[in-house]
Amino acid sequence: DVKVTQSSRYLVKRTGEKVFLECVQDMDHENMFWYRQDPGLGLRLIYFSYDVKMKEKGDIPEGYSVSREKKERFSLILESASTNQTSMYLCASFSTGAGRYEQYFGPGTRLTVT
Amino acid sequence: DQQVKQNSPSLSVQEGRISILNCDYTNSMFDYFLWYKKYPAEGPTFLISISSIKDKNEDGRFTVFLNKSAKHLSLHIVPSQPGDSAVYFCAALLNNNDMRFGAGTRLTVKP
Predict the structure, then answer these.
(1) Which residues pair with B83 in a beta bridge?
(2) Exposed, middle or buried: residue A100 (CB in 10 Å: 0-12, 13-18, 19+)?
(3) Which terminal residue of chain A has fewer beta carbons within 10 Å of its beta carbon, N or C?
(4) Partner residue facing A101 (CB), from B41, B49, B102
(5) Rounded to 5 degrees, what are φ and ψ at A35?
């Protein structure tokens, strides 16, 4: 019953490294999202994509970029990781099928930047 | 500036009683609202949603109420069970593809 998968559950990177977080969904959803979750701040939207090769900035896009070359895959890229990007990263896909709105999340990637 | 706010970081209720989780929003253009539940080390799971054209949606023990004039929605859980203990997130959808979340409320249901 796999819906949304993320490439890593835990990741440790050094400051300045380039980091790739991969997300794959198997539900043929048009919309995909990247959030980060921090204590007291909830889920903050980094980027979302409503179609292949389309992307939109969320609330906190600075320091991040994204790539959506295929419908099922949405990648988050940290060009030069910094310690303030230590966080839990959550990917999600979204459906509006049959008049119902549902969003499915991956298990999350806990990234630590040292 | 957060467009979706959950002003109570935590809530504690007794098993069998009602849990009421609140959420406020600022953007009147949101057209759909959703509630999610999150356990530690897991991604959030969808619970229940409501369209902006409705004022109530019920699914088993969970009911969501929407007051558009007050830009306020709430999630009622009746009766509350210890397994309901988790962090609950309110979310609002704009233009079918822009989803914003609140900061979450940690619910503890005591046996």
Answers:
(1) none
(2) exposed
(3) N
(4) B49
(5) -125, 160
- β-strands A87-95, A4-6 pairing: unpaired
As a whole number of angstroms, the distance between CA A104 and CA A93 comes to 5
* Residue A18 CB burial class (10 angstroms; 0-12, 13-18, ≥19): exposed
A31 interface with B at CB cutoff 8 Å: yes
Looking only at the bridges linking them, the beta strands covering A109-113 and A10-13 are parallel
Identify all chain A residues contacting B43, using CB atoms and an 8 Å cutoff.
4, 90, 92, 105-108
Inter-chain residue contact B43 with A90, CB threshold 8 Å? yes
pLDDT digits (tens, 9 = 90+) for A54-106: 998 988 999 999 999 999 999 999 999 999 999 999 999 987 766 666 778 99
With CA atoms as reference, report the closest residue to A16 among A61, A64, A83: A83
Nearest one of A72, A73, A51, A55 to A64, comparing CA atoms: A55
> How far is residue B44's CA from residue B90's CA, in Å, rounded to a whole number?
11
Q: Extract the tokens encoding A48.
A: 């979302």
Res A102: pLDDT:
75
